[in-house]
Amino acid sequence: MRPPRKNPILRTRVPTLPPSVRSRVALGLTAAAARGSFELQVCRDCGTVQYPPRESCRVCLSLRLDWHVQDGAGELLSETMLRHSNELFYRERMPWRLGMVRLDCGPVLVAHLHGDCAPAPSRVRVRSALDRAGQAALMAMPEKDTPNMADDRQLREMTCDPKFRKVLITDAKTPLGHALVEAIVAAGADLVWAGYAEPWKKTAGFDQLASIPQVALLPLDLTNSRAVKDAAGEIGGRVDILINTADHHRNYGIAARNGVEVARAEMDVNYFGLLRLAQEFAPALRGRGADGQSSAVAWVNLLSIFALSNFPPHGTYSASKAAALSLAQCLRAELGPAGVRVINVFPGPIDDEWNQLLPPPKIAPARLASDIVHALRGGVEDVYPGDIAEDWLARWRDNPKALERELAAGT
Ligand SMILES: [Zn+2]
Question: In what order do the strands lie in the sheet with 65-69?
């Protein structure tokens, strides 16, 4: 069911957030949820799986606890409908369904309960998602998918589903841009603004986008402060999800080229472009964080796995993406209080013209687009699509210095 439209006469509420204070050890749950993974502590000595997270094992008091992925299968033992809460966030959203679940791996926990879960006792799957405060929350889902399950009112409070929402894609002229416009339309968005710069430049597939009924073309050059301001003035108050796909990519290191023009152009799009967008669009998104069930929910940045550690053959590009990552963390801190999620996407090399000479594997634009839609639906904030990104992430988490040496040696 389409959520009711906001009554324009009513004042927009000030955003409220679910309780967000967590102990440092409990942030382990959040760190996993940010990547879309449900992990619990497992004792290395006695094998106990425990929840809630603690400093030591509840059975043998061992301190050797590791985070391991869980499948979340379990049994719903009992449920209740919350009709009163001292927390303002939940009071505004009553009634709220909660259930007690015994996971097959041992722990018993209280979880938000999806509307399609059968009454207790029944089988459920528990998954971890980030709530509006950006902290991990556990949601019990029906064991098997049901039609339109993403529309659940409680689930939508934790996800950024494009369905029924208005989405701005800042650069629709790239292969990823086309694929993303089509994927977001297919996901049920009400309206997609497809941004484009350099109108004189013909690119395959772009003109067809205009014939999709939900798509509106929007001139938007991120290197021009005035153009960004004008676009924000025109549509800023209606954007629910902003996806910044603008990307300037040349493959040079330092010694291969004289002068700073190429590096400056990369910074102008990848870093200053994001800054211009954030200055003009973020205040409006922040103001609409509590605008009912179709409020402003997400800001997506197309970064690169090269942002984590410099890839010398694409050295200046890597540096511009590292700068953008740092700025995106600032943006996340500023949009967080409004419940608007900043999702950073770290793909490996995309299969486009500037990676032509790189050997496979490369990520196809259509796959990347579907991973971005999946991230919006999944309530995550960091996405590492494709095999190369996953491999880099694993090596970077294991030992950043080793990865730096390996990249310098070209391995
Ligand atoms: Zn133990």
Answer: 49-50, 39-43, 65-69
